[in-house]
Specification:
binds zinc ion, five-stranded mixed beta sheet, alpha/beta, globular, 30% helix, Metallo-beta-lactamase, Chain A
């Protein structure tokens, strides 16, 4: 256990875990160019956990990749089709199988004939452990486990396995332009929710290190705006988690171990949904103190 002398009572209370500093006036239903042959289509699925909605990225010039197809929403799929503009699609890349990220892979594959790249769907035993919104119908044509390189030159993508938010989470790096599609792992507008048992804080921190080591300069997350200084944001997120870990550790040192009580002490002004998210994150901190690991046998299935 990581005990700390810091008093939980003296620890500064935090603002809500979900910041809302993303740009107002988000554009739904049409592609918005970013640069370097990358454009973004924003799905109209804004919620507490998704910010203004899911970002689906269209990458390339004559031949395209789609990164994070998004939710099962016909209007969104039609907007991505507009962005494709009749060009050929070489691959549909999924960051992870939460329902706001992967379901549109199926209709987009049907439209374009492109293969789906991603990490395996959750086995039913694993899926039964969580009430997170999981895409149980997900099928990948190409199973990725991290370390793969696809394409070459300007259009080369490196695959990173980044568990923590979710066990099958992948990030995708365009090394030539220093751009990292960071999925839900690192976002600018909010920290990500870690829901045990499938979410795991120790894995999350290890994945942060992996991302930092890529030397990426810019993050394009699956929710919210681009982050122009990748390393600064990655370090900020790590520092925030470690600050929270010390606060939770101080509670534990005083014999306070109920996530509900710890959240009441550490967080202010949370809506009902965000209270649940905060309790999950506190459970993830407690699991890390206990060195609790997800069931590796189940994870391997
Ligand atoms: Zn997610």
């Amino acid at each position: 256990m990581n005990k700390t002398s810091q008093s939980a009572q003296s620890a500064q209370k935090s603002s809500p875990i979900m910041a809302t500093n993303h740009k107002a006036g988000s554009v739904y239903g049409r592609p918005v160019p970013i640069d370097n042959g990358i454009s973004v289509v924003l799905a109209d699925n804004a919620k507490d956990y998704t910010g203004p909605g899911t970002n689906t990225y269209v990458v390339g010039d004559e031949r395209l990749w789609i990164i994070d197809p998004g939710p099962a929403d016909a209007a969104h799929v039609a907007a991505v089709e507009t962005a494709i503009a009749g060009r050929s699609v070489d691959g549909i890349f999924v960051t992870h199988t939460h329902l706001d990220h992967s379901p549109a892979a199926k209709p987009l594959k049907a439209l374009t004939g492109a293969p789906v790249y991603g990490s395996k769907k959750l086995c039913s035993k694993l899926a039964a452990l969580t009430d997170e919104d999981v895409d149980l119908d997900f099928e990948a044509d190409h199973e990725l486990s991290g370390g793969e390189t696809i394409g070459d030159g300007k259009w080369r993508i490196d695959v990173l396995h980044t568990p923590g938010h979710f066990p099958n989470h992948l990030c995708y790096l365009l090394p030539e332009v220093g751009t990292l599609f960071s999925g839900d792992h690192v976002m600018g507008w909010s920290t990500t929710v870690i829901v045990p048992p499938l979410g795991n804080l120790a894995d999350y921190l290890a994945s942060l290190t992996l991302l930092e080591e890529t030397g990426a300069t810019r993050l394009l997350p699956s929710h919210g705006d681009a982050v122009e200084c990748a390393v600064t944001r990655i370090r900020e997120v790590r520092n925030h988690r470690m600050m929270r870990h010390a606060q939770v550790g101080a509670c534990v040192a005083r014999g306070i171990t109920e996530p509900e009580t710890i959240v009441d002490m550490l967080y202010d002004d949370l809506t009902a949904r965000l209270i649940e998210a905060a309790r999950s994150c506190v459970r993830a901190h407690l699991d890390m103190m206990d060195e609790k690991q997800p069931d590796q046998e189940l994870m391997a299935q």
